[in-house]
Every structure is written in C-alpha cells, then in structure tokens.
Write a structure and sequence with these properties.
Low-confidence stretches: 3-24, 32-82, 92-96, 521-526
Shape: globular
CATH topology of the domain at 197-326: Serine Threonine Protein Phosphatase 5, Tetratricopeptide repeat
CATH class of the domain at 197-326: Mainly Alpha
Distance between the termini: 119 Å
Structural class: mainly alpha
CATH architecture of the domain at 197-326: Alpha Horseshoe
CATH superfamily of the domain at 197-326: Tetratricopeptide repeat domain
Radius of gyration: 33 Å
C-alpha cells in the first residue's frame, strides 16, 4: 500500500461517518442542478438558487432542524429537492416557457405523481390556471403518472376559468378512475353554473353529489350553492332548499350542518329581495339551533331593515349587536350612513361617521360617498365639497360614484365651471366616466345655455366608449328646445327615430310641442 493511500485510510478512520453522507448529498444536489439546468434558463436558475445555502453542506441538507423535502426520480434513485424545483417552476418571468421546460424535465426523468401534483397545486394557488391545464396535458400525453388529486386540480382550474363543460369532463375522468370527485372542485362547478344562470343544473349537481357519486355535500358545497342562488336573484329557491335541509326531509339533510356563514348568506339574499319576514325567521332559527350570529349576519339584518324603511328596528338591532360584544365593521356603518342619507339626515350621518372613527374603523370611499349624497339631498353643496376635500386629505382615492355626486351637486347650484373642473380632474386621474356622469354634466351645461360645450361633450362619448341612452337624448332635445335651437332639436329627434329607439313620453312633452308650433311642416312626419 502506498503512503498516500494509507494516509487517506487513516483520515477516513478518524472522520465521522455523517461527513461522508453530507458530501454524498452535496454531490447529488450538484448533479440535480446540472440536470435541471438542461431544461431551464441559466438566469432563472441563478435567481432561483440565490437563497439556497449550498456553501454550507449541512444547511444545504437541513434547514431549521428539518430535512428539506425531496422526491426520488424513477431512474437511478436520484433525490431531487422539491422546494428548489418549485421555486424554479414558479418564476413568473418565465411564463409558459418555463412551464414547458419543467414539464419536459418531469417527463424525461419520469418524476412521481407526488411531484406532479405539488407543481399543479402551486400553479393553481398562484392563479395560473391555463398553465396548470397545459402542464397536466403534457404529463397525460407522455403517460407520466396522474391520479384523482391531479384531476381534482384540473377540475378546479376549469371551474375558475368558467369552462363548465371541460370541468364536467374532468369529473368524468375522475369517475372513470373509480374515485369520487373532490368536494372543492364540485363547489367551484356549482358556483360557475349559478353565475351562468343555470340554476336547475346547479341544484341537480348538488343532488347528484351524494346520489350518483358518493360525495356527500357539506356546508361548503351548500354555502356555495346558496351564495350562487342569492347572487342571481333566486333567494326563493335557496330558502326552499334550506327548509328541506334543516327539516331533514331532503335526500341529503343529515349530511349538511348549516353554519353561520350559510345563514348569513341566505339572510343577506332574502333581505336584498325585500323579504324581511324570512330574514327575521332565519335569524331566530339560527339562534335556536345554537349558531351565534356574527358581524356579517347583523350587518345583513340591519341592511334589510333599512331597505324596508324600518329605521327604529335597524337602530335597535345595531344596539343589540353592541350589547352582544360584536364589533361593527365598516360595512355596518356604511349601511347606516346610507340609510340616513336617504332620509336626508346629514347631521346624524356625520355623527355616526365620527363614532365609526372613535371605534377604530376607518371610513372608506363608500362611507364618504354616502355622506356626500346625504348633504346633496339636503341641498348643502358646500358641505358636499368639504366632505370631498376631507376624503382626499385622508389619502382615499375618490371613485366614479364620488365624482358623480360632486358634479351633480355643482350642476344643481349652476356652478358649471366647477363641475367641468371636477370632470376634467376625474379624467386626469384615469377614471372613466359613465353615462350618468355625462348626462349630469350635459343637463347642467344646457341649463346654463352652453350649447356648444354640450355638443362637444356629446361628441366625446365615443372617446370613452359610451353609448347615449334615452335619458341622454331626452336631455339634449329638451335642452336644445329651451335654448331655441329648434332645427338642431328636430334633426336629433328624427335621428333618434331612424335608429329605432323606443321614444319615451318625456321626449314628446313640452319640448316637442314647441317644435310643432315652430315647424308645422313636420307634423305629418311626427
């Protein structure tokens, strides 16, 4: 034996065995990097590995006292660092290209289904639904292992994209494999069907979950269906379904435990449809069943009472909420401020906003808009302006509704120059005016006799991708007549008729009589 080999043997005897394990692991990780770099760009790998402590062999293997997750490839048993690969995979800068490269890597190295599922879930969680579908297809076409979990993610992706047909196709594949569909995926499909107005199909799908698939619905599935039904104006169907479930007379009554979220959603739905009696029935029922209402439940109840003009009952409900130790949120206060605005009680609305701030809730743009609307209805334009200035001083960005109220207030007091300034400021901030904004300003301009400015504003409708409605034409015809622009009013009137608009009674009123008195030759045509 040579002196060098004998020295090496002596060193090995003195070193602990774990050192060789660490060195071996480091070599495996180096080999892993080389393999991944064959499929992914150098720049992306460099950024992905910038925080991987490879310089320290021990921390490369162990981080925070726990071994970093690895998965074994199908060939050669090489260990691949899952977090490292996911980090590379999730670099958004790579787009579809990096997805394709990692897919090729998984196909060539025959990665196990656990890794494929982890990467699919990562794509789904980051909202990259198209990439997840493309990744699955590449795996499936190349016969890389997938299972029911992979198909559940696929079903969720199709549902999020609104592709209900393809989502049901994924359900069929799950059933073909002998598995029951995932409840979360079916809940997404339920939501899609409701959004598309396919209510009967949504209810049938809910029923089929247990009858045909053996996947009993839970409170999440039920809550999704109730939310979808109420959002599409079908609270009546949702209420009847709720009765079947609670009474235990339905085919899945015993499987669904109705929780506070379900009750709150249903209460909100029936309140918006004006069924306060049913909302109160549900509120009492949930308490009798030991389900405690939360801030959302109380806010929905207060909103329903305010919509029904029951202000005293709404106040009582608010005080009851405080007595129960439930902190009202910004939604609760906004409901009350909006109700006070409709009753033209500006002083009380302002006091309520002060209380809101004292209780630690910051008013939002809707709070300020409701308060502005309240002062506008009281005819206090200066106070509307003060609230708007206060909103901006707090760093809150006004929206289109806020500007519409401000412009409307200025126009009401014939302060057209200030209204035009507010309109221009709105455009400069990148906000797109709606047809209400333009109609309000048009009416104000024509009342002030600014016919040319009104015509110019009308011509700007196309710039903002707005289409004039019957209100727009009525304002223009009426305004032109009042400014003695009879010929222009006539031309506009017949333009409207030729476009087959359904003319309202307003446009045939006093303004049209003035046209007839001045232009008898047009009477037969009218």
């Amino acid at each position: 034996m040579s002196p060098s080999s004998s020295a090496a043997a002596i060193c090995r005897q003195k070193l602990p065995a774990c050192i060789f394990t660490v060195i071996k692991t480091q070599k495996q990780k180096q080999k892993q990097k080389q393999q991944v770099q064959m499929y992914c760009s150098t720049a992306q790998i460099a950024s992905a590995t910038s925080d991987c402590p490879e310089s320290n062999p021990r921390t490369a293997t162990i981080r925070g006292g726990r071994r970093r997750p690895t998965c074994s490839s199908g060939e050669g048993g090489t260990n691949f660092d899952l977090k490292y690969l996911q980090k590379t995979f999730n670099r958004r800068s790579g787009g579809a290209g990096i997805v394709s490269n990692v897919a090729k890597f998984c196909v060539d190295s025959r990665q196990p289904v656990s890794l494929v599922n982890s990467l699919l879930i990562d794509l789904f969680k980051t909202g990259r639904y198209e990439d997840a579908i493309g990744f699955y297809r590449k795996m499936s076409c190349n016969k890389v292992g997938t299972d029911s979990k992979s198909l559940s993610v696929l079903m969720n992706c199709y549902s999020k994209l609104g592709c209900v047909g393809y989502g049901f196709g994924a359900v069929g594949l799950v059933l073909k494999m002998g598995f029951a569909p995932n409840r979360i995926g079916v809940s997404c499909l339920l939501n899609c069907l409701c959004e598309e107005g396919r209510i009967n199909e949504a209810v049938m799908l809910f029923r089929k979950m247990k009858e045909a698939w053996g996947c009993a619905p839970d409170e999440v599935s039920y809550g999704t269906l109730v939310k979808g039904l109420c959002a599409t104006g079908n609270s009546e169907v949702a209420f009847k379904l709720h009765r079947l479930i609670v009474d235990g007379t339905s085919f899945f009554g015993g499987d669904v435990q109705v929780n506070c979220i379900c009750y709150s959603t249903l209460i909100d739905g029936v309140c918006k449809d004006g069924r306060w009696d049913r909302a109160n029935e549900l509120f009492l029922e949930m308490r009798s069943k030991g389900v405690e209402p939360n801030v959302v439940t109380y806010s929905s109840m207060i909103d329903g009472l305010c919509r029904g003009g029951k202000w005293d009952e709404a106040k009582a409900m608010f005080y009851e909420m405080l007595d129960q130790g439930i902190q009202p949120n910004v939604v609760t206060f906004n409901v009350l401020i909006n109700a006070l605005a409709k009753m033209r009680k500006g002083k009380e609305a302002k006091e309520l906003m002060d209380l809101m701030v004292k209780r630690g809730e910051e008013p939002n743009v809707r709070s300020y808009s409701s308060l502005m609307e309240c002062f506008y209805k009281e005819g206090d334009v200066d106070e509307v302006q003060n609230v708007f200035i206060s909103l901006e001083s707090k760093g809150i960005e006004p929206n289109v509704v806020t500007y519409n109220i401000l412009i409307k207030a200025y126009c009401k007091e014939c302060r057209i120059d200030e209204a035009i300034t507010a309109y221009n400021q709105m455009i400069e901030k990148g906000l797109k005016p709606n047809i209400v904004t333009v109609n309000t300003l048009l009416e104000g301009m024509l009342l002030k006799g600014m016919v040319n400015d009104a015509q110019k504003l009308k011509n700007e409708l196309e710039v903002h991708n707005l289409t004039p409605n019957m209100v727009t034409y009525t304002i223009l015809v009426d305004g032109l007549c009042k400014n003695n622009c009879i010929q222009e009013a006539l031309e506009l009137f017949f333009t409207i008729k030729n476009r087959r608009f359904r003319l309202g009674i307003e446009i045939y009123s006093c303004s049209l009589k003035k046209i007839i008195r001045n232009k008898f030759e047009y009477i037969p045509k009218i």
